[in-house]
Amino acid sequence: MLDLNYFEAMEAKIPKGKVRTRFAPSPTGYMHVGNLRTALYTWLIARHAGGTFILRIEDTDQARQVEGAEEVIYRTMAECGLDHDEGPDIGGPVAPYIQSQRRDTYGKYARLLVERGHAYYCFCEKTESEEDSGEFGRAPDPCRDLPLEEAQARVDAGEPFVIRQKIPRGGTTTFQDAIFGDITVENDTLDDQVLLKRDGLPTYNFANVIDDHLMGITHVVRGSEYLSSAPKYNLLYQAFGWDIPTYVHCSPVMRDAQNKMSKRHGDPSYEDLRDQGYLTPAILNYVALLGWSPKGELAEQEIFSLPELVQAFELNGVSKSPAIFDLDKLTHFNALYLRALSPEAFLQAAEPYIRQTVKNYAPGLIAPLLQARCEKLTDIPEKVDFFDTLPDYGVDLFTNKKSKCTPEVAKRMLDAAIPALEGLTDWTQENIHNCLTTLAEQLEVKTATLMWPVRISAAGKAVTPGGAVEICHILGREETVRRLKLGAEKC
Ligand code: GLU
Questions:
Q1: How far, in Å, is the centroid of ligand 1 from the Cα of 206?
Q2: Tell me: the pLDDT tens digits for 20-34?
Q3: CA angle 455, 456, 459 (to 5 degrees)
Q4: Residue 218: CB partners within 8 Å, gap ≥ 6?
Q5: What is the pTM of this model?
Q6: Under a CB-based contact definition with an 8 Å cutoff, are residues 456 and 396 in contact?
Q7: Which residues, listed in sequence order, are joined to residue 400 by a DSSP beta bridge?
Q8: What is the DSSP letter of 405?
Q9: CA angle 93, 196, 223 (to 5 degrees)
């Protein structure tokens, strides 16, 4: 006999009265973009309502365990500022928050359902493909109608079993989703899914219902791949006599019109994007808009900080349509975020990337050239590599129509610029600038005609962050003159 006090005690622990949401990742070892979006929306719903945000680790699929996978979850959430109020690492009123530690609970609730006639012990050996065949014309499971005493005797004798949900025959089940509206299905299209596996662990389909109820979850936010199972979850809630939470199913994030984003196809995870030089706030901002858009006064706004998202996020802005992940759009957001950083914050972010190719000059001098000129931090090393090592460039770089420059003109310009720069007393940007513009006037050429060969010889490449003056200033007089002489020799 089951101890009913246990269930009463569990009910008594459930926090009530506030919005409670949970992010429930499986520890797969990476956080894909769709998962990050689910985490963000779940967190935003809680924070917008002044509610509680819970982290729950769903590790009941033992075959899919990955070393260090939980670390990725904690690290990503912390980097993104998606702080939780309850979770495995900090505990809370409905601990434990790791499913593998809640094993006994699921077993007890599964047995309660068996006693109430909403589930049954099943002793059949079925392969996974038989399990998922979705053939509803097939013969009913012979264990479904075994008398309980008989089934119990076989369990007591040690025969291996699973526990299956007993879906009512005939009739329909309707569930409501905040995004997709009301959906009704025929019960005869629902399978008697496994709730408790042979190893005594629950399936996701059972554990999510038990945990969401026992943790007092008011809004269940997850991917729309779970929509088709939602009627079975409703039948479970009804079988227990529990209130059904608000379902918020989110459409997938796609890589193109046909395919979902997937790690298997090389689509980036959160950490990949960060490693590719995207700033976390830019990623979060972009991800927030994958399937959600602000309404009313904010309808035109695209740039949102996390606190602004907390204010603005409403469920009526979440779309049913799948969202396509557009890396160019994220890159555009990232450039805006890089530009909006304070010079100090930009230097801090850019320094390790500058240091990849520049050892001889201070990153503090170079960073200001970059802030308005890079879209991703990873663009930086290649843009500034010429500071340490003058590239081996060809004389044709001196030819530029707009600046009215040819190798012959360049030779004349450089021959004049070298002594002028050598004679400068104070090597400041202003002095270098004045020296070169005055020289251009004396030579009766456009400033650009002089600046072009100076910049090309100083940097050895056509495209540089910063102009001739800024680059020469950073290089210093001696190195500038050395490079300008090398340039003049080429012409
Ligand atoms: N563990 C499930 C997943 O990672 C979570 C689904 C849910 O949030 O209910 O897909």
A1: 12
A2: 999 999 998 889 999
A3: 80
A4: 18, 19, 20, 21, 51, 245, 246
A5: 0.92
A6: no
A7: 405
A8: B
A9: 65
